[in-house]
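Before relying on records like the one below, remember that each one covers exactly one chain. Contacts with other chains, cofactors or solvent are not represented anywhere in the record.
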Amino acid sequence: MSRNDDDRFAAPPLDRSVLEVTDVLRFSVCRPRRNTAMMLVDGEIDLRTAPTFRDQLCRLFGGGAVTVVIDLSPVTFLGAAGLRVLVDAQAQAEKSRRRLILITTARCVDRALEVTGLAPSFHRVRSLDAALADTAVGYEETA
């Protein structure tokens, strides 16, 4: 990842639970555990909304959590631009020694990851409980 890619994920920490609402994409953030931050993404992630998605992930990474969970269950469309944001987020997580976990139950998300061959690049689970489970158990489950 180039220096410019690192800059994409350098942002101020989170300061509120509902970060942004657009006409097709909504974000909310919580901390289910002290070192875990979770962002729920609801709507369509496409060329138009991907920059906002990236900005919200930057804030999430800026919060200092060791584990970052992105709940994509309510996502109704995941395009190439959204996939790029996820790939960059995974690279940033690896570089900063964090865990990135995707909650995927939406067919459009799973299908996009599988068709592009990106599925093995991500740790995917089906629920928040699975994401929060003990490392020896919870991180073995994949979507």
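The helical segments are 3-8, 50-62, 80-95, 107-115, 128-132, 135-138.
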